Amino acid sequence: MKTKSIIDFVGNTPLVEVTNSFNNPNVKLLLKLEGNNPGGSVKDRAAYFMISEALKKKNIKKGDTLVEATSGNTGIALALMAKVLGVNMVLTMPEHATIERVKTMRAYGAEVILTPTELGMEGAIDHALELKYKKGYFRLNQFDNFDNPKAHYTTTGPEIWRDTQGEITHFVSAMGTTGTITGVSDYLKQQNDQIRIIGVQPKEGARIPGIRKWSEEYLPAIFKPQKIDSFLEVTQQEAEEGTLKLAKQEGIFAGMSSGGAFASALKVANSIEEGVVVTVVCDRGDRYLSSNLYK
């Protein structure tokens, strides 16, 4: 009997059409449901690639301890993949993270260290660096690790091209670490350089987990602005309303970054006369139940 491991079920997630929130016979709006990954988010792809490639390159070995800063989904994915691949995981994250995310990481066996909310993601990154130098932990550094976008060049991009039968005209993606949009852009542009790549960033003052605009000193090295054709800003209200619309009208239970990407993809779909617009629903909504999102 041929059996499979949990890793075999990373990727090949469904691509479904929006049917209630948008209706134009000449434009298709499609959602890639990354919550169907084993760890519940798109970050399973990058987490697997970063750890497995580090093992292949002998940068780490089984039993080593890794450290990474995270705002949530990457941490869950790393906690899962670390145990499957035989390494230990220490995660630093801002203390305002929802309790579901913290408990999930700990359930997979990771050590979670919460950093002050007011220091933001930058504070979590600084603490991860401190642990790297003080304790000798190996830092994956998802922001500068080119195995992050490689995961999406190798899997996400080809899946979107395959499942749209090469008809995709616009790809809309929330921007966090920028691994997804960079890797998918690389692949899709190689197939058809007329495909438009649209990055979604938060409007000034918006706090949307998973969507951010980096200050210059913390800008991810993997981010290549020339790979993105245009940017859209999304407000916190638009992201929240988009998330609720996904659940109530499309039956898709997701987090706020997915709502922000969806709201932006709707704008793109409404602005064109014909085409195929694809966006990524990054994760599942169950890890946000303690927040005000679904109150």
Salient structural properties:
pyridoxal phosphate, transferase, Rossmann fold, four-stranded parallel β-sheet, single chain, alpha/beta, six-stranded mixed β-sheet, 295 residues, 8 helices, globular, 2 domains
What does this structure look like?
The chain is α/β, with parallel strands linked by helices. The protein has two domains: 6-41 and 149-288, Rossmann fold (3-Layer(aba) Sandwich); 43-139, 3-Layer(aba) Sandwich (Rossmann fold), CATH 3.40.50.1100. Helices cover 38% and strands 18% of the residues. The strands form two sheets. Strands 1-2-10-7-8-9 form a six-stranded mixed β-sheet, with helices on both faces. Strands 5-4-3-6 form a four-stranded parallel β-sheet, with helices on both faces. β4 (88-94), α3 (99-107) and β5 form a beta-alpha-beta unit. It starts with 14 loop residues before the first strand and ends in a 14-residue tail after the last strand. Pfam families: PALP (PF00291). It catalyses: O-acetyl-L-serine + hydrogen sulfide = L-cysteine + acetate. Keywords: Amino-acid biosynthesis, Cysteine biosynthesis, Pyridoxal phosphate, Transferase. Its EC number is 2.5.1.47.
